[in-house]
């Protein structure tokens, strides 16, 4: 299974590295593995840091839960709530607390759908909904949302790349995935690392 993440969020810097490594290995590679400690002391420190990060995010999430309870028509509050749920899901997933992570991804899909009631044309929120749905095994919702995101903005690179990953993994549709990645590359992204990452995905599929 390939790894992919939301755009411009807490863990997004690992996006292409993990994505390409996962394609090569055929498995999800936890983000934390890129920070492997060298001894038990470092391992304990890393675990303490991760636990503190989770706790802080959960506390912040409580604030947004109160905000949407007080004002359920606040689209931005729903987005922030969903983003926190997504990030918690990502972090828990990456430290092998998969069931907890999936639970947060499911919550994120609900929150993103609420947000889209008030931000209907927001392509990033739509794409984030799709990726959260993928992680929580809601494949019909994921595909529907990817298609909606691409319909809203055919040049939105993250929707194209992530939909390609979905097609590759869930549908075993390599040609469909290749089409999406080539379309993503055709948007002429300015970031050279992104370009190289997409080119690597295309090359790996063509070599199979």
Low-confidence runs: 1-5, 8-37
Domain count, please report it. Answer: 1
Broad shape = globular
Compute the number of strand runs: 0
CATH class: Mainly Alpha
Summarize the biggest pleated sheet: none
CATH architecture: Alpha Horseshoe
- The assigned structural class equals mainly alpha
* Terminal residue distance: 16 Å
Mean pLDDT over all positions: 82
What value does the Rg take, in angstroms? 17 Å
Tell me the strand percentage band.
Answer: under 5%
CATH-derived topology: Serine Threonine Protein Phosphatase 5, Tetratricopeptide repeat
| Helix percent band | over 70%
Number of helices: 9
- The string of secondary-structure elements, in order, is HHHHHHHHH
By CATH's scheme, which homologous superfamily applies?
A: Tetratricopeptide repeat domain
Per-chain topology:
Layout: H1 15-25, H2 40-70, H3 75-94, H4 98-116, H5 123-135, H6 139-152, H7 157-169, H8 174-185, H9 192-207
Helix pairs in contact: 1-9, 2-3, 3-4, 4-5, 5-6, 5-7, 6-7, 7-8, 8-9
Characterization of the model:
- This protein is an all-alpha fold and 208 residues long.
- The chain has a single domain (12-207), classed as Alpha Horseshoe (Serine Threonine Protein Phosphatase 5, Tetratricopeptide repeat).
- It is 72% helix and 0% strand.
- It has helices at residues 15-25, 40-70, 75-94, 98-116, 123-135, 139-152, 157-169, 174-185, 192-207.
- Helix 4 (98-116) runs antiparallel to helix 5 (123-135) and helix 6 runs antiparallel to helix 7 (157-169).
- Mean pLDDT is 82; it is low at 1-5 and 8-37.
């Amino acid at each position: 299974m390939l790894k992919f993440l939301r755009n411009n969020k807490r863990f997004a810097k690992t996006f292409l590295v993990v994505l390409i490594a996962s394609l090569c290995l055929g498995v999800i590679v936890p983000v934390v593995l890129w920070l492997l400690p060298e001894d038990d002391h470092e391992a304990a420190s890393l675990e303490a840091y991760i636990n503190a990060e989770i706790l802080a995010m959960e506390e912040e999430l409580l604030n947004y839960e109160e905000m949407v309870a007080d004002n359920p028509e606040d689209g931005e509050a729903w987005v922030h709530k969903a983003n926190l749920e997504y990030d918690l899901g990502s972090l828990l997933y990456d430290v092998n607390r998969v069931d907890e992570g999936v639970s947060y991804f499911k919550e994120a899909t609900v929150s993103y759908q609420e947000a889209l009631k008030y931000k209907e044309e927001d392509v990033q929120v739509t794409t984030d909904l799709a990726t959260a749905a993928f992680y929580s095994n809601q494949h019909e919702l994921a595909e529907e949302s990817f298609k909606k995101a691409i319909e809203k903005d055919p040049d939105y690179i993250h929707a194209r790349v992530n939909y390609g990953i979905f097609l590759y993994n869930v549908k075993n549709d390599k040609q469909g995935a290749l089409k999406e990645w080539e379309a993503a590359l055709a948007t002429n992204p300015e970031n050279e690392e992104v370009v190289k990452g997409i080119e690597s995905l295309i090359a790996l599929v063509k070599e199979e």
